[in-house]
């Protein structure tokens, strides 16, 4: 049962805390570049059904206590939870795919140099990131302005990875409210979590607390640590329960029967010919692993492995605690073309 269902009196400017409901509701969205269109489609359908029940103003953020997203999933999370001038979600779910269709060709510009295309792409893979990221950074800053993490309309969890300290950095609304140095601009967080190595440049920024203290971040794509952020979100809620956060006062640690988790993937291939095999990889050096047939095998492999292993752990966890019906993983099996598997193949 959603928070809106439990509380029809819910105002348009804020959501009630989880303590007022029967369940802790969690939405998780994988990384995957332009394949963010897949969860975007699912969320558009879900929001339309919720609007049939609760009216046209219903939004995804009204129904989830926590929304977590990595990389492109972090962008979608922010679209769903960042406030507009009326303190309602910046995007309706049905507008997400339109954003991808309009902007992806500018984020991932496709250059065709005829017979020299492969050579140019190979040189680019050696010389620097495939894309300069300027349009993405400009667009994100334009949309989010100076909105900070603590201002989201529901709790969000967005993983990144700090290459200077070699540690994951998880940005969450929970910590932003108590730790000023984690209360970054949403634009900085979105740019950071989507900075996929070899595709987009790493991103650095600094936060400053009210006491003058500062913290520097040197970040890349959160998929390095958690391309599927489901357990990251669940663990964050568990931590808040352990810390006796009053927003979660009715709930107890490990009481996963009181969790309702929906985890959205960004697609995987069912076609063996779309994948590499040991004969291909046996002779690869650094360049082979980073750039091959227009893709980055190493990035594809660790992101898919990260997403799948989290699903395995979450599924077993909920089964072991006899609440498997409270966990739903939706992963699209792509049956058609190589283009659908590529995180950056955008066409006008």
Automatic annotation (TrEMBL):
<feature type="active site" description="Proton acceptor">
    <location>
        <position position="221"/>
    </location>
</feature>
<feature type="active site" description="Nucleophile">
    <location>
        <position position="71"/>
    </location>
</feature>
<protein>
    <recommendedName>
        <fullName>Patatin</fullName>
        <ecNumber>3.1.1.-</ecNumber>
    </recommendedName>
</protein>
<dbReference type="GO" id="GO:0006952">
    <property type="term" value="P:defense response"/>
</dbReference>
<comment type="similarity">
    <text>Belongs to the patatin family.</text>
</comment>
<dbReference type="GO" id="GO:0047372">
    <property type="term" value="F:monoacylglycerol lipase activity"/>
</dbReference>
<comment type="function">
    <text>Possesses non-specific lipolytic acyl hydrolase (LAH) activity. Hydrolyzes phospholipids as well as galactolipids. May play a role in disease resistance.</text>
</comment>
<dbReference type="GO" id="GO:0004620">
    <property type="term" value="F:phospholipase activity"/>
</dbReference>
<dbReference type="Pfam" id="PF01734">
    <property type="entry name" value="Patatin"/>
</dbReference>
<feature type="short sequence motif" description="GXGXXG">
    <location>
        <begin position="31"/>
        <end position="36"/>
    </location>
</feature>
<dbReference type="GO" id="GO:0016042">
    <property type="term" value="P:lipid catabolic process"/>
</dbReference>
<dbReference type="InterPro" id="IPR002641">
    <property type="entry name" value="PNPLA_dom"/>
</dbReference>
<keyword id="KW-0378">Hydrolase</keyword>
<keyword id="KW-0442">Lipid degradation</keyword>
<feature type="domain" description="PNPLA">
    <location>
        <begin position="27"/>
        <end position="234"/>
    </location>
</feature>
<keyword id="KW-0443">Lipid metabolism</keyword>
<comment type="function">
    <text>Lipolytic acyl hydrolase (LAH).</text>
</comment>
<feature type="short sequence motif" description="GXSXG">
    <location>
        <begin position="69"/>
        <end position="73"/>
    </location>
</feature>
<keyword id="KW-0611">Plant defense</keyword>
<dbReference type="InterPro" id="IPR016035">
    <property type="entry name" value="Acyl_Trfase/lysoPLipase"/>
</dbReference>
<feature type="short sequence motif" description="DGA/G">
    <location>
        <begin position="221"/>
        <end position="223"/>
    </location>
</feature>
